Amino acid sequence: MLDMQRIRDNPEFIKKASENKKSPVDIDTIINLDNRRRDTIKEVERLKNLRNTRSQEIAVLRKEKKDATKVIAEMKEVSDRIKDLDGQQKEIEETLHEHLIRVPNIAHESTPHGESEKDNVVTATWEKPPSFDFKPKDHIELGIILDIIDFPRGAKIAGAGFPVLKNEGARLERALINFFLETHTRRHGYREIFPPFLVNRASLFGTGQLPKSEEQMYFIGEDGLFCIPTAEVPVTNLHRDEILDQAQLPIKYCAYSACFRREAGSYGRDTKGYLRVHQFNKVELVKMVLPSTSYDELELLRIDAEFILKALGLHYRVLTLCDADLSFAAAKCYDLEAWAPGEGSYLEVSSCSNFEDFQARRMNIRYRPANGDKPRFVHTLNGSGLATARILVALLETYQTANGTVHVPEVLHPWMQGLTEIGPR
RNA sequence: GGAGAGGUGCCUGAGCGGUUGAAAGGGGCGGUCUCGAAAACCGUUGAGCUGGGUUUCCGGCUCCCAGGGUUCGAAUCCCUGCCUCUCCGCCA
Question: Which end of chain A is more exposed for a tag (fewer CB within 10 A), N or C?
């Protein structure tokens, strides 16, 4: 959510920026509602002031056993008028709110301008794609040969898009999660959180998934709860409606969670295999920081996520998303894409975003400046570090051998009970 | 699932329907004292919105879990929801 003051001061700029982000908004209506709101407030506050002073007078008259019926009758009318105006104000504010929550975050000045995802900028690449003296298999084939991914049985027990990991595949998945968590907690100084996997509406509103993306989430109607699409939601909401001390910042959390996505509307894209599934595992990094440091923190966050890819020895590239491809709540975002030789394409395995105060406003997360000033909104950031589903794909396809086995990267050995190579059963 | 209790400021904890934004204590901050510290004493200590002067300034309105209702007036009365706690049942 943007600051109303900011919209009031730069309506044309906001209008242009929202168009650049491909989610235009009706700024004129918002400005108009804002004016009506403030006019109403002026009038209703004048009347309430009158009511308050007169009520005092009534109390005094009563105490002195004098007649107050005239003032009371007068105030009854004023009260009716107030009730009427209160209703109007509430209505205006609700309408204004409905508009405001749909205004996207404004892209940061360092975010490139573009028309579509084609205009994302390749900012960095790491190593070269591995070369093979044989035709590399894709992960689906490898999964079947090695008996580590079972698509048909997943479909049987849950549905399409719910593959089952088995044997060394299951163990590898667990090793990856452990490696991620250990790295970020011990090496990078994040505090570990194990969050609920179901959250309420308020939490999803706070991080920006609601109201825009409700159809993308699994909803348990009976309890009014949603399956989290990412640990970002519960973890960022930890400090909702709180005022933190400046000394506590920056707060750095990492959390493993399963992630649930309906992927409605994306049927036909990446339908095969393990690339787009309804449930996957992810270790998420979340930061709450001083506004003045958030862009430095974004670079550090990206470095922390990249460290994992480097340690796994995967070829990858970094994209800086252009404004048109930026998500609703983000001001700047880097996508990390790992190379999958079998697919012959890059797979998005992490998005590192700075939301500035956009989420903090929705969640009302503030900090008290060290000098004791009024509370200010924190800046929030998050990034995957990393998502296992696609990393597993990149891993299997990168480390496969001519005879169909897959080497286990050395950094995962501590969690593989001595297994260094996965072979056919 | 059944039966109770309760949700007040950073914390504990008062609060006959009418100067209660809120007693008291604790904590925090500032000061006095001290070479310094402790103790003691004094002072101070919420947020949002909206005006005006427009750097440290001065007003008004709102907020005692949330949303409704009663009333001239509600933290205080009534209803609904949410949350917490205790007991019973069930259970990983």
Answer: C
